[in-house]
Write a structure and sequence with these properties.
mainly alpha, disordered C terminus, TCF25/Rqc1, Transcription factor 25
Length: about 575
């Protein structure tokens, strides 16, 4: 609105006010003997006038003005039609700094950021929705990645990532670097292409193995809604990156942020759930105190996804009702969980360092179930995963007495031959006899929780950090190059690093020289024990490599190469992901 119109409105308003307050003016003494008229003016009356002017302008322009009308209190709304999607993501909760400010206070977080950026950076960095860009990160140029629309099926839009020709060349170099068993080659790729997705994921795992979690998280954070087909190679990097990112964020106690990323990740493929995020989403909901959300989520999804057949949801839902104050419902759910999954109790109490009651410790119902040989292997893995991830929840002083009370009630029902006990035992044996689903095995590998490993024939083959356990019906754009047969010995720890991520790796079992033409079976994990010399040498070598890499990443200021196709015109820049 022009200043002329505002002056006109103000002048007219002043004239009206003078007429209206002629009877209410008062004399007030001022310095110098002068007397001033004081008017009872409502300064907000001008805003009513402004709305009138806006309506007039809209009328002249042919636009409709919809005034704000208060909703009558007697009008009832259809709650179903206005209910938000249970997986809707709140963008403000995707930023872990917002949650850290709520925990520690905004002044502490801001001062910490100023301290870290004291060395100077490259000026203002554009923030993103899912990651906080650091001042020392290289500038982001054309990445060669773009997202294209595929189809609309039953009202759901499907998209896919596309790799440009130059990005494909870099990806092929990366695959060759992985097969070369030389981590320096991967560092060289990141030096030339600081935002290459798979290289950042692979190097992040290297930092994690050397216990440099801060650098590992930063590398993942560099790579940050619709449906994406996990079968396509180009799409899988986003799933892997989001999963690793939410794990690192959860490690900072930003549980609400991790919950939002779980919802985002699940919304990409709610039917397939290729990284089995449903095995972790309940944990973050409980830790974030989003109890009602968890109840609503299970209520909406259990009928189609059978969530309560998973140990984590059976116990977490009971805890959510308990924290919500519905003790009667919580008791029933907890007893059902204990009857369906009795193998959880003793291991959970032991993990929580709780002294077990004699009646509970020696009762065959729980002691036999605790014997892993008497339960299906797939169920054992689900139970171990839940216990090792969520045992901190059960250390709550409010939960333990409630758990103890319901455990004894379950034993009373068992001793009275409640028919539910036999029924649940039959279901438990039949439902979990099959092999561990590939998505769950992939979830266990990505979670990297101590004491849990996937039991699947596929996991004994090549396992790569940037693409663990590709689906059997994978739609491949790239093929793994044939690894050359090179002599490998225990005296070269860096040479054997990329052979492994699985926990059963043993450097003493490596043959000194490979037979000609024999392919290595991929990468397995570092040895957990530090007693042998080879394991110690390996850890020291990895640590020195990470130190060198950290210096490299903190100090490089490269001219950003244009990784997009030379033939791409400027119109395609809007589709590129930065």
């Amino acid at each position: 609105m022009s200043s002329r119109v505002l002056r006109k409105l103000q002048g007219d308003k002043d004239k009206e006010l003078v007429d209206e307050v002629s009877d209410t003016e008062t004399d007030t003494p001022v310095t110098g003997g002068a007397r001033r008229k004081q008017l009872n003016i409502n300064r907000y009356d001008l805003i009513d006038e402004v709305e009138r002017s806006v309506r007039e302008v809209n009328r002249l322009l042919g636009e409709n003005y919809v005034p704000k009308v208060s909703t009558p209190t007697n009008v009832k709304h259809d709650k179903t039609s206005h209910r938000k999607n249970i997986l809707s993501v709140q963008h403000k909760h995707l930023n872990p700094n917002n949650e850290l400010k709520r925990i520690f206070g905004s002044k502490i977080i801001q001062s910490e950021h100023k301290r870290k950026n004291r060395g100077g950076g490259r000026g203002h960095v554009k923030p993103t929705t899912m990651a906080n860009c650091k001042e020392n990160w290289p500038q982001v140029g054309k990445s060669g990645l773009s997202m294209n629309y595929i189809e609309n099926k039953n009202g759901i839009q499907y998209f896919t990532y596309e790799h440009s020709q130059s990005y494909r060349q870099i990806q092929n170099k990366f695959l060759e670097a992985v097969e070369s068993l030389n981590p320096d080659n991967i560092v060289a790729i990141i030096n030339d292409h600081p935002y290459h997705v798979d290289a950042l994921i692979q190097l992040s795992d290297l930092c994690k193995l050397s216990e440099d979690l801060a650098m590992a998280a930063e590398l993942v954070e560099r790579r940050c809604t619709c449906r994406l087909d996990y079968r396509k190679q180009e799409n899988r990097a986003l799933y892997i990156t989001l999963f690793k990112h939410l794990m690192f964020v959860g490690g900072k106690a930003c549980y609400r942020t991790s919950l939002e990323f779980c919802k985002l990740l699940l919304s990409l493929d709610p039917d397939g759930d290729p990284v089995a995020v449903k095995l972790a989403i309940d944990f973050y909901a409980i830790r974030a105190r989003e109890y009602q959300w968890l109840i609503d989520f299970v209520t909406e999804w259990d009928s189609s996804k059978n969530l309560l057949q998973l140990p984590n949801f059976a116990f977490s839902l009971a805890a959510a009702y308990f924290y919500n104050g519905d003790s009667a419902k919580a008791d029933l759910l907890l007893q059902d969980a204990l009857l369906m999954f009795p193998g959880v109790l003793l291991s959970l109490l032991e993990k929580c360092s709780v002294q077990i009651d004699n009646r509970v410790a020696y009762h065959t119902f729980f002691s036999n179930a605790d014997d892993q040989k008497k339960q299906p292997p797939a169920l054992n893995q689900l139970i171990l995963l839940y216990i090792n991830r969520s045992y901190h929840i059960w250390k709550d002083s409010d939960l333990l007495p409630w758990l103890e009370k319901n455990v004894h009630e379950v034993l009373d029902r068992v001793e009275k031959n409640d028919p539910v006990v036999k029924d649940y035992e039959t279901k438990r044996i039949k439902r979990y006899l099959g092999p561990l689903p590939q998505s769950i095995a992939r979830h266990i590998l990505l979670s990297d929780i101590k004491g849990v490993s996937p039991l699947t024939d596929e996991s004994s083959g090549p396992v790569l950090s940037f693409d663990p356990l590709p689906p059997k019906d994978s739609i491949n754009l790239y093929t793994r190059p044939r690894r050359p047969a090179l002599p490998i010995s225990n005296s070269n720890p860096l040479g054997i690093f990329f052979r492994s991520i699985l926990p059963n790796f043993n450097p003493n079992n490596i043959p000194p020289i490979l037979e000609p033409g024999r392919e290595e079976e991929g990468a397995r994990a570092l040895p957990e024990g530090g007693d042998n010399n080879e394991g110690g040498d390996l850890r020291r070598s990895v640590a020195s490599l990470v130190d060198a890499m950290r210096d490299l990443l903190n100090n490089i200021r490269p001219e950003v190469p244009n990784d997009a196709d030379a033939e791409e015109n400027d119109d395609s820049a809007d589709d590129d992901l930065t």
